[in-house]
Amino acid sequence: MNPKVDFYFSKAKKWQKELEQLRTVVLDCGLTEELKWGVPCYTFQKSNIVLIHVFKEYCAVLFFKGALLNDANDILIQQTENVQSARQIRFTNLREIVEVEIILKAYIYEAIEVEKAGLKVEFKKNTELIFPEEFQNKFDKTPALKTAFEALTPGRQRAYILHFSAPKQSKTRESRVENCMQQILNRKGLND
Fold first, then answer.
1. Residue 192 falls within a domain, yes or no?
2. Does residue 87 have a pLDDT over 60?
3. Per-residue pLDDT averaged across 80-106, rounded?
4. How many domains does the chain have?
5. To pair with 50 at 20 to 30 A between CA atoms, which of 13, 26, 60, 181?
6. Please, are residues 52 and 37 in contact by the beta-carbon 8 Å criterion?
7. Alpha helices in the chain (DSSP H)
8. 43 and 96: one domain?
9. How far apart (Å, rounded) are the C-alpha atoms in residues 16 and 94?
10. pTM, 2 dp
């Protein structure tokens, strides 16, 4: 146990027992406990394997390369359709954790083996993402916008495309593009 991570487990009043149990299970698998992104993250030879996090309705163990796991028990959850690599196992009470402890450990050991084998998730390329018409129109009218967008990292490009594509109404998509144009021209990411 890493003392720098202790605060996380003591502050989560609603899920405290569940989090303590998850921590015990994960540490039993021989991983190193660290604090990353403000949550407990467990690594093997400095590579991220799983993290523990909480939401209002559940707590979860997130597998960084969960898409590569076998999931023989059909318990891994893809958070949203845009999440390509990570998968969660969600819990709503302590009993659920205790019931699947052996299975959870098996998934963690499999995740460690995936890391040892050097396996990588094949991410969709940005060219596979669909540019909303409203953004494509701005590209055509403003060559500098296209140049600035192409200079962004693939992750930043993806974030913008997903942000622009999310609304159902064209008017809202167009407004989002307008609001972000200067940020793109400044070569900044959506959340920079």
1. no
2. yes
3. 92
4. 2
5. 13
6. no
7. 6-11, 16-27, 94-99, 101-116, 133-141, 143-151, 154-165, 170-185
8. yes
9. 10
10. 0.68
